[in-house]
Amino acid sequence: MIELMRKQVDLDGSPVLFEYPCTPDGLAEQWDVRGGATWQARDGLFEGANPRNCPGMIVSRADYFGDVLLDFEARTVPPSTHDIDWMWNGCWDEARDQRGTAYVAGLQGWWVGKVGFERSPDYKLNVATPLFAFEPGRWYHVQSGSIAGHVFVVVDGALVLEVTDPDPIDSARFGRVGFEAYASRIQLRAIQVRRPLWQPVERTYPPEDGAE
Predict the structure, then answer these.
(1) Whether the predicted pLDDT of 211 surpasses 90
(2) How far does Cα 105 stand from its chain's mean position?
(3) Which of 178, 180, 192, 206 is within CB 3.0–4.6 Å of 59 for a Cys-Cys bond?
(4) Chain-wide mean pLDDT for the chain?
(5) Does pLDDT of 19 surpass 90?
(6) If phi over 0 gives left and psi between -120 and 50 gives alpha, with beta otherwise, what is residue 79?
(7) In this structure, are residues 110 and 100 in contact, taking their beta carbons and an 8 Å threshold?
(8) Is 209's pLDDT higher than 90?
(9) 81 close to 212: Cβ distance less than 8 angstroms
(10) Tens digits of residue pLDDT in 77-100
């Protein structure tokens, strides 16, 4: 159970909408490679490499509308040390050949090693912190998504970031999910798209001695 502001999210109980096989056929049939990156499937995982300072992505061909939770394992591939990034409630702008509307989150990004979040394409909503002790090459279990614009990032069972969007993306219109290597080489496995199971919680403080 993850305790958000005024919400409890049952991560283990959140139903699976789709589980992606990390196979060559799965990559070819269920994902589009975007942004000039190289993506391949081997040994039960996806590997993406992108030397440029831009989103080198795989974008799902399927839409997942509504509240979405991405559940996956990821790591950087040494000597790569940064930028495991993912998106949801998103789209790809075909006319501009770049990511369009989307929620984007990541580990060890934002140039100086932060856990962060941003809203594409205008990037006026951003939040990040350098307080997560990232280890290059280590596998991390990530569970991240949003509930009506309430965004969260959970790593190895611990909440590391949350933010509320005052003007949420219309999740009935934007439903693509994706992953990106940004000037990095990353690997992914055990990829699931879930529907976050949650309930509202009224938060109050109990009385404390000395607080009168």
Answers:
(1) no
(2) 5
(3) 178
(4) 96
(5) yes
(6) alpha
(7) no
(8) no
(9) no
(10) 999 999 999 999 999 998 888 899
Structure tokens at 53: 């300072």
d(CA 139, CA 156): 10
b/e sequence 148-161, b meaning 16+ C-beta within 10 Å: ebbbbbbbeeeebb
| Residue whose structure tokens are 């990156």 | 37
Length of the chain: 212
The residue assigned the tokens 């269920």 is 30
Question: What is the CB-side half-sphere exposure of residue 188 using CA atoms within 13 A?
Answer: 30
CA-wise closest residue to 57 among 74, 38, 34: 34
Structure confidence by residue, pLDDT tens digits, 23-73 = 999 999 999 999 888 999 999 999 999 999 999 999 999 999 999 999 999
Cβ atoms of 87 and 211 within 8 Å: the answer is no
Which structure tokens are listed for 183?
A: 């000037």
Match 């999210």 to its residue by tokens: 9
